[in-house]
């Protein structure tokens, strides 16, 4: 009996040990799956595949897309809110800080896009450096960024259209169909009902641009160039026509004293203002989403990114300095702050009308490029199997991801119809900062793991100076965001986890690739999860894993 009990106990322990080892084994394989990387060779092969997206964009068109996406809501709309509510005249410094953060990110984007000229932007860069799971995180974040950016711009566009109509007709527009039905109260930190019905002009512009993007990117780029020329001329007109009417008293105090709230004026208000106006610079990263539609991406991407950001920064600082100098900063809390500032000049009705027309044109191009970038992110993630394949469907004639463009346009139109401007703008900014942070980290990793890969552009001073500084500044601005914005981002990312682990994890095409082997290097990073599977089924160039053991 004693011997039998001994062997029974021993057998039970061995079985438990075996089960524990098996559980650890599966956990190990699960963890390895999350950090499986794409190889640079795979990304470059995808970038060279011209059978789907059509390469039609020149360097000039790429730069115009960048300027078209950058100059818009940040200066025409959000600059007034940042000055009136948070920074005062120090909003000029807010723009400079935001420009520095964006400029450092532009260097990192330029290097990565010249190295891996593919349509996925930060999503693709992260896939090659930090693995599938973090790539999903950044891809889901970019979905939020571009979706809300287009909606934010559409709301600003609506404000200028309404102001133009009222200026010309001398009658107030019907507010029930030009404003969102809900708004956010900073005092009570809660939403409230405005009594309005829908922001109809915002819906109309989103639908019109969606149709244009479905027709083709070449046509979209040509329209964008015309719009960019118009809005640059309008911005220059405002600067030179109004700079003589600035008053020194409007710049004092340059840093208004803090009013007791963390983000209400003072230095902290100026930093929060930088977070708000950071939206003004985010357009350049959408340039990288068109890499697979550019004739010479290794050359065009760095020029387009850095060139568009440099031109836009100079114009921004000029507009902002003139705007806060013309009228007291607290009067700029308006959907059309530049038009509000012009009231402090004797230019009468003609200049506000021209400015409104330029702002409308400018905001149109920003929304266009945001919708363009969003559909290309969907296309890249669906091509990798992380989203349903319908989003990767390219039209046989126009060579555009038409289904994803239509779906995104409809969702964006709904957001623009019902959500207030401030909420949309802050959510877009914090989402962008997350993306910029990971691109900086990607540059550092790739400098040490892929020294041999040719690059059309290198971040100056090596990988240990500008990219780390840029990453830290991104963290600084994220910390300066409001608590409510951080909570909303966390909720969005939580939804992303559900989508990934219920769909993306199980449909990832990288998981089935023949190239995987047992090497632990970045270029040939294989998963034990795949290589130890007992059964494989070969179909064309893919290896389909039999999941019976799971």
UniProtKB/TrEMBL annotation:
Example of a GO MF term: amino acid transmembrane transporter activity
Source taxon at top rank: Eukaryota
Keywords, comma-separated and alphabetical: Membrane, Transmembrane, Transmembrane helix, Transport
Main location: membrane
Membrane topology: Multi-pass membrane protein
Annotated Gene Ontology cellular component terms: membrane
Subcellular location: Membrane
UniProt-listed Gene3D superfamilies: Amino acid/polyamine transporter I (1.20.1740.10)
Transmembrane segments: 60-78, 90-110, 198-218, 225-247, 267-284, 305-329, 349-373, 402-424, 430-449, 461-480, 486-506
UniProt protein name: Uncharacterized protein
């Amino acid at each position: 009996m004693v011997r039998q009990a001994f062997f029974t106990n021993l057998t039970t322990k061995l079985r438990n040990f075996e089960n524990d080892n098996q559980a650890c084994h599966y956990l190990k394989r699960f963890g390895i799956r999350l950090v499986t990387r794409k190889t640079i060779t795979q990304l470059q092969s995808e970038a060279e595949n011209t059978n789907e997206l059509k390469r039609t964009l020149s360097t000039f068109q790429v730069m115009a897309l960048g300027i078209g996406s950058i100059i818009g809501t940040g200066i025409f709309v959000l600059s007034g809110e940042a000055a009136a509510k948070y920074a005062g005249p120090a909003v000029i410094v807010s723009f400079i800080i935001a420009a520095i953060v964006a400029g450092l990110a532009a260097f990192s984007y330029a290097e990565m896009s010249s190295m891996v000229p593919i349509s996925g932007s930060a999503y693709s860069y992260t896939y090659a450096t930090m693995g599938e799971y973090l790539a999903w995180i950044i891809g889901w974040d970019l979905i939020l960024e571009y979706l809300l950016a287009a909606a934010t711009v559409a709301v600003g566009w609506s404000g200028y259209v309404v102001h133009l109509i009222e200026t010309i007709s001398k009658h107030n527009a019907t507010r029930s169909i030009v404003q969102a039905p809900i708004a956010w109260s900073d005092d009570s930190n809660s939403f409230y009902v405005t009594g309005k019905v829908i922001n109809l002009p915002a819906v109309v512009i989103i639908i019109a641009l969606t149709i244009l993007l479905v027709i083709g990117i070449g046509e979209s780029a040509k329209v964008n160039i015309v719009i960019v020329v118009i809005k640059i001329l309008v911005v220059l007109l405002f600067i030179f026509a109004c700079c003589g009417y600035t008053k020194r008293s409007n710049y004092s105090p340059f840093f208004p004293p803090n009013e007791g709230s963390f983000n209400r004026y003072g230095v902290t208000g100026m930093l929060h203002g930088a977070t708000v106006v950071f939206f003004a610079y985010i357009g350049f990263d959408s340039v990288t989403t068109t890499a697979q539609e550019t004739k010479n991406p290794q050359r065009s991407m760095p020029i387009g990114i850095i060139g568009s950001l440099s031109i836009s920064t100079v114009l921004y600082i000029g507009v902002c300095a003139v705007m806060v100098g013309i009228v007291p900063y607290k009067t700029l809390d308006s959907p059309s702050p530049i038009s509000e500032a012009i009231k402090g000049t004797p230019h009468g009705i003609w200049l506000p009308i021209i400015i409104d027309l330029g702002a409308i044109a400018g905001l149109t191009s920003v929304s266009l490029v945001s919708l363009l970038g969003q559909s290309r992110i969907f296309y890249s993630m669906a091509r990798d199997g992380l989203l349903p394949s319908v989003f990767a469907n390219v039209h046989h004639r126009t060579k555009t991801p038409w289904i994803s463009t239509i779906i995104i346009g409809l969702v964006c139109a709904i957001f623009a119809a019902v959500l207030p401007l401030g909420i949309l703008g802050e959510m877009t900014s914090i989402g962008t900062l997350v993306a910029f942070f990971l691109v900086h980290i990607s540059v550092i990793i790739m400098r040490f793991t892929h020294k041999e890969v040719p690059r059309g552009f290198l971040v100056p001073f090596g990988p240990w100076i500008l990219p780390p500084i840029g990453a830290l500044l991104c963290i600084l601005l994220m910390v300066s965001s409001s608590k409510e914005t951080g909570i909303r981002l966390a909720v969005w990312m939580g939804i992303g986890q559900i989508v990934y682990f219920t769909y993306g994890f199980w449909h990832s095409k990288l998981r089935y690739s023949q190239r995987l082997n047992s090497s632990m290097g970045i270029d040939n990073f294989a998963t034990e999860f795949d290589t130890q599977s007992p059964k494989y089924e070969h179909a064309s160039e893919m290896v389909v894993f039999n999941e019976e053991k799971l």
